[in-house]
Amino acid sequence: MPDPLQRLALIRGIDKPAHRVRSIVSTGAIDRYGEIILPSAFAASIQTYLDNPVLLWGHKSYGGPEVAIGKAVDAKITSQGLEAEFEYAVDANPTARMVWDLVEAGVVRAFSIGALAQAWIDKWTEKPDLTTLPDFARQAFLDGSARRVYTQVEWVETSQVLVPANRDALIAAVLSDTVDRDFALRSLGELELARSERTGAGSWPGWEPPTPQKEAAQVTNEVHSLEELQKSVSALQDSLADTVRAIVQEELAAAAEAEQVQRELETLIANDPEAVLAALEPADE
Question: Which residue of 28, 46, 102, 179 has the fewest C-beta atoms within 10 A of its own C-beta?
């Protein structure tokens, strides 16, 4: 299976008695790679995911049963994005119980989705139809904040993670009777702190959106590196060829010398065999 796109989901609330967490799986925010996954991109694959709604630990889809810590019990697209509700298998899996305790304590609060890209718009898209994009995505693409917008993906799995790939993935909360209010208020405070540290829409300190000039310069540098590598390989090949030629010449010279010695010995035997026999006899002590 191709490497999946991995994006963080936002925890909206925690239901302790039911061991459930509701989260925003995708909001359409620009990630650190300058990409957007539209919430609507998941529409065609929601039911497929719910047919096998496993919640994994750390994207370990090839691990043992202990990495299956729960399941999705609901998923839908709302005005805020793609939302999902997950239930932890705390009674069946000790790992799930451990993760749930960490979630409940506010230590682990991040989710990450795994999705396979199926359709997108970027600078290489021939005649892209930007009218199909929401206003925020179209504007981000046009001003260079987003270098790619995914319009259709296959949602294949969701994982609880420690460190998210998307720096824009922060915790928000829905204050309802089943949601822990201290957890929600703490999360909202972190969200406001993160917002105050933002330097601009879709950007973070030290990060600049990619531009055609930067990407062209990167391509030029990569081509230059490849040319230098090719020169090094050619020089190595020439050196190796010189070494092989020298070895072959030495072998040929040795063979010619041996052949000359044999001819001289044959001539000597033919002309004076007694002298040769006498030379071969051991000397008297």
Answer: 102
